[in-house]
Amino acid sequence: MDLIRAGDPKTLTDLYQQCFPQIKHLVLKNSGQIEEAEDIFQEALVVLFRKIKNDTLTLNCSLSTYVYAISRNMWLDKLRRKNRTTGTLADEQEVVDLDDDVINTIHHNERYAVFQKHFQKLGDGCRQLLRMFFKGADMKQITREMSFSSVGYTRKRKFKCKEQLIRAIRQDPAYHELAEGNSLDDQTIK
């Protein structure tokens, strides 16, 4: 795990060579495309790295089986959201149950990706204001740092920026896919 945490190139290459073919086979065999397999694999690695970084990874199977289980779960969720499966997948791999923490991490990553996509599309001023707000700055501090005329104007501007972000997210088809799968709620953008 230390080599993965350190980003050791050989270890990461070995992990890719060992895990990706199985995940590609799973996705292609279950209504997917190669690009979707690559995306699912990358998302699974993010979950794995996050668990390693936070020292919350406990394995009761091989690492490749664990990565496969994460990927399988993500792909099944994606198919369910698109109504492309009945809840089972055609696969021959050993499957392990994932704990709720892993499932929550997967859903968090999906919600965060939608949020980030639209947050980055906001104007510089809105992004700066919302970043400060999200980091806990009070309205007086934001007013001062952004050289606004009053706290009232700052509140109004924050409200408009937040509404613009919420509107963009709600218009995104990915939002609706996640909402239908009970993976996304307005907590992500509050």
Unreliable stretches, pLDDT < 50, 5 or more residues? 182-190
Strand runs, count: 0
The largest β sheet comes out as:
none
Average predicted local confidence, pLDDT: 79
Distance between the termini: 35 Å
Radius of gyration: 20 Å
Q: Which series of helices and strands comes N to C?
A: HHHHHHHHH
List the domain count as a whole number: 2
Shape: elongated
- Given helix and strand content, the structural type is mainly alpha
Helix content: 55-70%
Descriptive notes:
With 190 residues, this protein is mostly helical. The chain folds into two domains: 2-98; 111-189, Arc Repressor Mutant, subunit A. It has nine helices and no strands. Helix 2 crosses helix 4, helix 3 (34-53) crosses helix 4 and helix 3 packs across helix 5 (100-119).
List keywords for this structure.
190 residues, mainly alpha, Arc Repressor Mutant, subunit A, elongated, disordered C terminus
Précis, in short:
68% of the residues lie in helices and 0% in strands. With 190 residues, the chain is mostly helical.
List the topology elements.
Blueprint: H1 2-5, H2 9-29, H3 34-53, H4 63-81, H5 100-119, H6 124-134, H7 139-145, H8 151-170, H9 173-180
Helix pairs in contact: 2-3, 2-4, 3-4, 3-5, 6-8, 7-8
